[in-house]
TrEMBL record:
<feature type="compositionally biased region" description="Basic and acidic residues">
    <location>
        <begin position="191"/>
        <end position="201"/>
    </location>
</feature>
<keyword id="KW-0547">Nucleotide-binding</keyword>
<feature type="transmembrane region" description="Helical">
    <location>
        <begin position="340"/>
        <end position="361"/>
    </location>
</feature>
<keyword id="KW-1133">Transmembrane helix</keyword>
<dbReference type="GO" id="GO:0005274">
    <property type="term" value="F:allantoin:proton symporter activity"/>
</dbReference>
<feature type="transmembrane region" description="Helical">
    <location>
        <begin position="82"/>
        <end position="100"/>
    </location>
</feature>
<feature type="transmembrane region" description="Helical">
    <location>
        <begin position="269"/>
        <end position="294"/>
    </location>
</feature>
<feature type="transmembrane region" description="Helical">
    <location>
        <begin position="315"/>
        <end position="334"/>
    </location>
</feature>
<feature type="transmembrane region" description="Helical">
    <location>
        <begin position="12"/>
        <end position="31"/>
    </location>
</feature>
<dbReference type="InterPro" id="IPR030189">
    <property type="entry name" value="UPS_plant"/>
</dbReference>
<feature type="region of interest" description="Disordered">
    <location>
        <begin position="171"/>
        <end position="201"/>
    </location>
</feature>
<feature type="transmembrane region" description="Helical">
    <location>
        <begin position="106"/>
        <end position="133"/>
    </location>
</feature>
<keyword id="KW-0812">Transmembrane</keyword>
<feature type="transmembrane region" description="Helical">
    <location>
        <begin position="228"/>
        <end position="249"/>
    </location>
</feature>
<dbReference type="GO" id="GO:0015505">
    <property type="term" value="F:uracil:monoatomic cation symporter activity"/>
</dbReference>
<dbReference type="InterPro" id="IPR009834">
    <property type="entry name" value="Ureide_permease"/>
</dbReference>
<protein>
    <recommendedName>
        <fullName>Ureide permease 1-like</fullName>
    </recommendedName>
</protein>
């Protein structure tokens, strides 16, 4: 079994996890905006998410000789360690619920703000719990100011969302509820002769009212005119779920509550991640197959046959699952070495998601100066937060 023993190695894992975990939500959002049903996307994602855990377990978990205190992955599958296995599987359940919920929240609240709020809730609750579970191996005088930075960032993120919503309302003020321009109105305020070819190009420009209407017509989850409170409720629920999965995994690998029989070694991170991913996969399949026939949020009905035949964007959904699976695995590998409280620094993934949101989806394009100032302040605070949390990392002694 391969064990990360250096602080530098742990930080490298966390940085790579940050990139992966910040990118896969952008891919899922892209598919929803192109009209693919979220149930189809999540089923594909779940397959490769589990595959990533199996690959990690059979490679890193099998490197080297198995030792009594640190058995290899396959050796540990046959040991009596069910109390900690259940903790790992519980972590997988809440992560699956959180990921599934955010898939719908992204459409209502936006990729950037959803990630800011869920990540901040995860840090504030999850990191505090992990600090005490880890025996306070992280430097409290550094760790908790970092948590404070995340709290400031979530306030700024909420302000960004509010400001951007006002900007969008102003852009859409000349449109009726069905998305058509009201008679006699003009976005530019000038009398212009319409050139159909030119108008088509204008509709494709990020940040314009025409772009917002065109996006609404293409996407699978219709959001214009709906109460944004729906998205905020989904976002806060997802954040609560995310705040629990890392402490559950921590308990699974370190058994702080002494649930294992005496003499039975703790779950190694690879075995715990395997069981974690199994429960995540099973719940995702059950819920999404149910949503095919009983969809939520007024989505159209589908079927298993329709899902199997839907190859539109499937390769992207499979890639998203791999990125999320390897990202979670790297986060846990880094957390086992440096402490799970410090590993929660990957919750600064809104830095990456916001980058993709701006580049791929044109979020905040043609927004007001007020929105840009708030957005820059939020990103700056997140950069400070991730640096502070990583600086707080301690070093766990290997058994």
């Amino acid at each position: 079994m391969y064990i990360i023993e250096s602080k530098e190695g742990a930080i490298a894992c966390m940085m790579l996890a940050l990139l992966f975990l910040g990118t896969w939500p952008a891919i899922m959002t892209l598919l929803e905006r192109r009209g693919r049903l979220p149930q189809h996307t999540y089923l594909d994602y779940s397959i490769t998410n589990l595959l990533a855990a199996v690959i990690i377990a059979l490679t890193f978990g099998q490197i080297g000789e198995s030792k009594p205190g640190s058995p290899n992955f396959i050796t540990q599958l046959y040991q009596d360690n069910w109390p900690c296995v259940l903790f790992a599987m519980g972590g997988g359940v809440v992560l699956s619920l959180g990921n599934l919920t955010t898939q719908y929240a992204w459409a209502f609240v936006g990729l950037s703000v959803t990630e800011v709020i869920t990540s901040s809730i995860t840090v504030v609750i999850g990191t505090t719990v992990n600090y005490f579970l880890d025996g306070r191996i992280n430097k409290a005088e550094i760790l908790f100011p970092g948590v404070g930075c995340f709290l400031i960032a979530v306030c700024l993120g909420s302000a960004v969302h509010s400001s951007n919503a006002i900007d969008n309302e102003e852009k859409l003020s000349d449109f009726s509820n069905d998305g058509t321009r009201e008679k006699g109105s003009n976005v530019s305020g000038k009398n212009e002769t319409k050139d159909p070819e030119k108008d088509s190009v204008e509709k494709a420009k990020f940040g314009t009212a025409d772009f917002l209407i065109e996006l609404e017509n293409k996407r699978s989850i219709k959001v214009l005119g709906k109460n944004t409170l729906i998205g905020l409720v989904l976002t806060f629920f997802a954040g609560a779920c995310f705040s629990l999965f890392s402490p559950a995994f921590n308990l699974a690998t370190n058994d702080q509550w002494h649930t294992m029989k005496e003499g039975v070694p703790h779950l190694v991170v690879y075995t715990a991640f395997f069981h974690f991913s199994i429960s995540c996969f099973v719940l995702a399949i059950i819920l999404n197959v149910t949503f095919l026939y009983y969809p939520v949020l007024n989505l159209p009905k589908s079927s298993l046959n329709a899902y199997v035949q839907d190859w539109n964007g499937r390769h992207w959904a499979l890639l998203a699952g791999l990125l999320c699976g390897f990202g979670n695995g790297l986060q846990f590998m880094g957390g086992q070495a440096a402490g799970y409280a410090a590993a929660d620094a990957v919750q600064a993934l809104p830095l990456v998601s916001t980058f993709w949101g701006i580049v791929l989806f044109g979020e905040y394009r043609k927004s007001s100066k007020r929105t840009y100032i708030l957005l820059g302040s939020m990103l700056f605070m997140f950069i400070v937060a991730v640096g502070v949390l990583m600086a707080s990392s301690g070093h766990r002694k290997t058994p």
